[in-house]
Amino acid sequence: MVSSRVPSKTSSLEQSTARRSGAFALIDSLVRHGVQHIFGYPGGAILPIYDELYRAEARGDLQHILVRHEQGASHAADGYARATGQVGVCFGTSGPGATNLVTGIATAHLDSIPMVVVTGQVPRAAIGSDAFQETDIWGITLPLVKNSYVVRRAEDMPRIVAEAFHIASTGRPGPVLIDVPKDVGLEEFDYVPVVPGQVRLPGYRPTVKGNPRQIAAALKLIRAAQQPLFYVGGGAIAAGAHAELQALAEHFQIPVTTTLMGLGAFDEYHPLAVGMLGMHGTAYANFAVSECDLLIAVGARFDDRVTGKLDAFASKAQVIHIDIDPAEVGKNRAPNVPIVGDVRVVLRQMGERLAELGWPPQHEQTAAWRSRIAQWRQDYPLVVPQHADSISPQEAIVELGRQAPRAYYTTDVGQHQMWAAQFINYGPRRWISSAGLGTMGFGMPAAMGVQVALPDETVICISGDASFQMNLQELATLAQYNIKVKTAIINNGWQGMVRQWQQTFFGERYSASNMQAGMPDFVKLAEAFGVKGMIVTERDDLASAIAAMLAHDGPVLLDIHVTKDENCYPMIAPGASNAQMLGLPQKQTLNRAAELLYCPNCQAKNVSTNKFCPECGTKL
User: Fold this and answer.
1) pLDDT of residue 1
2) Are 397 and 490 in contact (CB under 8 A)?
3) 217 & 344 share domain
4) 128, 161, 191 — which closes off a domain?
5) Reduced to 3 states, what is the DSSP secondary structure of residue 489?
6) Whether the Cβ atoms of residue 66 and residue 38 lie closer than 8 Å to each other
7) Which residues of the chain are under the pLDDT cut of 50?
8) Distance, CA of 344 to CA of 309 (rounded, Å)
9) CATH number of the CATH domain containing 299
């Protein structure tokens, strides 16, 4: 797919004016903006658009992928965008077709993913009359989109599509909605295409370059810091700032920790990599952020799953915050040096300013700090347990990463998501997961979108038995188009993270979290859709089963039965600081022995000898 910022694909229609319908103008404009794939599901109000889509497919202009549920379309377009960095496109009809897209729109919104969502709508004269399959999708999605349109005149279609692609893909990316009444799709007008990229929006001017004074102030803080830490979020992925980030980190020898969305922004094999921080981040990353004297936030938003107890997060540190969105800078944590701008451009400006100043690489200043982090890494490594009678989920995920280190990975949400984040090292855009909204059912449709965009790459969805059942109907889409996604279900028979929280914070009262009753035979389920199904229950068969899955020339569903009560550690309890982690060995560092005797949930004192906190019942 080609983004709106590069030359577009030539349409079959010449540039000269011709009488065309609104539906034609929509499809032709999408082609001109480089769209090669659309994920969608037809219905009454959007039929004029699908009629033009039929002709465009016959001409070979683009391909429509028929999903089995509109939510699958939105997640597929999302995965397509995350893997390529370009705008994903999905279609749905009016009423339930449009509302079925809402979860996917919200997922893209919270993770800043560029999408254009096209919905059908009842005819203009019927809007507001509660007509059959009418919903106000514009109003429903207003808090969830970067911008939205209801097309009132067919002649506005070329401009609206051009604006939608520009808005979705520039500044802080996000989803844009285009709602098209049925009669607008049928209405004819003198069609004049809008050239992609030639959009005039006087009120929309994202700041790209950082303020030189702020950049100078940031460099001054960095040069003086003894214990600096880069805290890198999804903004670095969106901006493609990997090389600039690495150059600056290496120049000053600054360790780098990433958020869930930031995985892949920095080479995880690099000696400066500290892994993911936050609720289920590495112990050494969480200790580092608790002890750093300078925190350099790059495209990150100080999310609650990262910060834990906000007033204790990086409490010893001065803060530099770099972000394209001025609304994020200072929203949760007031920075000492705020810099608004495109992350890649700002980091490049910092590198250029360094060269002008002639500051040599700085290695000795952070040597003691890096040595301290290395000791935490040694004392508190991520552990892969082995059980005599079952496969641990960590083992399964490590084996996937070992056999397919360069694959594109999508996940659903829960324990398996956190283990996948902990135990596989990813390259840029090769980690695709719902972070902000935490959407179960995201993984397989997203993988479908990635595989359609990148047909020659290996794409693996790591799912859980509960998450997978939310959008399992998309197995039919995989089969119809022979989309070669490999899905590995980490099957423990539970809503795993819900069970872990019920065990830890709710006195082991497992309310509505066991999935064993009613669980399908996943192998037979896959085969019923025409997809290869496999199962593995023994450790000795794990490696060969994964190898067979990867070798198969088509979609595969692999059901891996794992330890049922394994918990995901480390874990920061709600309201606790990053230095207060559950699941670590008794030996602690940081000279925090007194603090770590507190209950991580209610802060009651001297609880280390108890199984449960006597004050709040939290399992210790």
Assistant:
1) 33
2) yes
3) yes
4) 191
5) strand
6) no
7) 1-8, 12-14, 588-598
8) 30
9) 3.40.50.1220
Rounded Cα distance between 7 and 32, Å, is: 9
CA separation for the pair 517, 363 (Å, rounded): 58
Same domain? For 22 and 132 the reply is yes
> Containing H/E element for 273?
strand 273-276
380, 420 contact by CB (below 8 A): no
For the domain that residue 404 is a member of, what is the CATH number?
3.40.50.970
* Whether 312 contacts 289, CB under 8 Å: no
Q: What residues make up the domain containing 291? A: 212-379
DSSP state of 474: G
- Distance, CA of 42 to CA of 316 (rounded, Å): 55
- Sequence-distant (≥ 6) Cβ neighbours of residue 486 within 8 angstroms: 458, 459, 460, 461, 549, 550, 552, 555, 556, 558
Chain segment 422-431, per-residue pLDDT in tens: 999 999 999 9
Under 8 Å CB-to-CB from 10, ≥6 apart: which residues?
Answer: none
Q: For residues 38 and 81, is the Cβ–Cβ distance under 8 A?
A: no
Query: What is the phi/psi pair of residue 90, to 5°?
Result: -140, 155
pLDDT tens per residue across span 72-92: 999 999 999 999 999 999 999
**362 and 488 belong to one structural domain:** no
Q: Which of 230, 237, 274 is nearest to 251 (CA)?
A: 230
Catalytic residues: 70, 132-133, 182, 497
How do residues 189-237 score in pLDDT, each as one tens digit?
999 999 998 898 999 999 999 999 999 999 999 999 999 999 999 999 9
Contact 441, 385 (CB under 8 A): no
Say if residues 36 and 57 touch (Cβ distance below 8 Å).
no
269 burial level (CB within 10 Å; 0-12, 13-18, 19+): exposed
Burial code (b: 16+ CB inside 10 Å, e: under 16) for 303-326 equals: bebbbbbeeebbeebbbbbbbbbe
Residue 415's closest CA among 490, 521, 471?
490
Structural domain includes residue 603: no
Task: Report the amino acid identity of residue 522.
Answer: F
Q: What's this model's pTM, rounded to 2 decimal places?
A: 0.92
How far is 555 from 546, CA to CA, in rounded Å? 13
Work out the widest C-alpha separation in the chain, in whole angstroms: 81
